Amino acid sequence: MVDIVAEFFLVVGIDPVPPSNLAELIPYLLRVFIAVALVSGTFSVVGRVSEALSGFRG
């Protein structure tokens, strides 16, 4: 699981080392939440497309 999380941070471009103070934490968390939302949206779209394609075949 640690490898998957580390790879996610590297793909998104976020430093895997957490920030040391609050001024660095807020932008860091915003980047993480935006990245999670984008990945979630992408998987949702891919899932809907695959569902539509499998519906045409069956």
Question: How would you summarize the topology of this molecule?
Answer:
Elements: H1 2-12, H2 22-57
Structural notes for this entry:
This protein is mainly alpha-helical. Helix content is 81%, strand content 0%. It has 2 helices and no strands. The protein is elongated. It starts with a helix and ends with a helix. The mean pLDDT is 84.
What are its keywords?
58 residues
Could you give a quick summary of the protein structure above?
The chain is mainly α and 58 residues long. It has helices at 2-12, 22-57.
Helix proportion range: over 70%
Q: How many helices does DSSP assign?
A: 2
Instruction: State the order of secondary-structure elements, H for helix, E for strand.
Output: HH
Q: Which runs of at least 5 residues are low in confidence (pLDDT < 50)?
A: none
Main beta-sheet strand count, sense and barrel state: none
- Helix/strand-derived category reads mainly alpha
Mean pLDDT: 84
Distance from first to last alpha carbon: 35 Å
β-strand amount: under 5%
Q: How many β-strand stretches?
A: 0
Radius of gyration: 16 Å
Specify the overall morphology.
Answer: elongated
